[in-house]
């Protein structure tokens, strides 16, 4: 019994000594590791700020609008005898669309022609009488009053001829109007009448509608504040436009694809919408394949101009503080981290256009921001965008292999 107690005590003493030894060894390793890590400042990737000329564009939502639109209405009354077009097809300006029964208008035209012949015959008689009375009044064979009456009759007959000619022209126009022609070239819609329908001159309901789709308008809206900023940048020289009033516009379709034809800005409204605070801009686009149809939702990328001496930084180098201000971490001359509050104007692809807060030569941290603390030293190395994207691309196969 005594022997067992001694053995147990010796075992406990040995275990306690071993535990103390392991604890001291671990503490030594931690101290050694801490000293080693503290001797090397964390490494961060930086870009050096410079200036460059960058194109500035704005993406605005809008709708397509026909270049021209015409509602076709009859200009004479009558019965529709025939429809001369295919609904949904393309028509040329001047081509016949409907034929209205011309019988009554043909009769009116012939009657007006007959009245003109009669009036012209009366002119010949009155002219001869006036000439004879001119000779007779010289020898006192007729009175001056008779001569004046003959001259007046001649002028009245000539006026009747003018009236008859106008009636003939009016009858000819009405007869021509029995063929309802296309006022413009374009794509025609559905017909609202069929053969046998009665139509009236200048009726409220249109027979059909024609829309010119090549070229086509795109109407977009821009806030008045953005328009003022754009004009201020142009006036101050921060923004340069190569061709005044001929800004190029690109188009993104509803499915996100890019429209292959490029347009240009054609019109800017002079009134601000009081309800929305926006101004309407109109661009014109070629549409030879009729891809753009009226009423389509599109996004127009409007080229505002070129920003000279622009300061741009990668988007991942800019974060937001608690107040929502844009902040970048900069490495100073002593390789210590300094926070900078920026004023960013807009995103240009994967970069921010910076108005204030950075100067040429500043070193902005792009990667390793989580290791950078204000005032702490860091080891800056140049940022390589290609190297940054490589691990993300290589991680997919590794994940698949782990899944196996």
| Helical content class | 25-40%
Major sheet details? 6 strands, antiparallel, barrel
Number of strands: 20
Q: In the CATH scheme, what's the topology name of the largest domain? A: Elongation Factor Tu (Ef-tu), domain 3
Spatial strand sequence of the major β-sheet: 2-9-13-12-11-14
What's the CATH first level of the largest domain?
Answer: Mainly Beta
Tell me about this structure.
The protein has 404 residues and is an alpha+beta fold. It has 4 domains: 43-55 and 309-391, conserved putative lor/sdh protein from methanococcus maripaludis s2 fold (Beta Barrel), CATH 2.40.420; 56-66 and 211-305, Efflux pump adaptor protein, beta barrel domain (Elongation Factor Tu (Ef-tu), domain 3, Beta Barrel); 74-98 and 182-205, OB fold (Dihydrolipoamide Acetyltransferase, E2P) (Beta Barrel), CATH 2.40.50.100; 102-177, Orthogonal Bundle (Helix Hairpins). 34% of the residues lie in helices and 34% in strands. The chain is built from 5 helices and 20 strands. The strands form 2 sheets. Strands 2-9-13-12-11-14 form a 6-stranded antiparallel beta barrel. A 4-stranded antiparallel beta sheet has the order 6-5-3-8. Helix 2 runs antiparallel to helix 3 (144-177). The chain is elongated and about 140 Å long.
Topology:
Blueprint: H1 2-38, E1 43-48, E2 52-72, E3 78-83, E4 90-91, E5 96-100, H2 103-138, H3 144-177, E6 179-181, E7 186-188, E8 198-199, E9 208-223, H4 224-236, E10 239-240, E11 248-252, E12 263-268, E13 278-285, E14 297-314, E15 318-320, E16 326-331, E17 337-348, E18 351-356, E19 363-367, E20 379-382, H5 385-403
Helix pairs in contact: 2-3
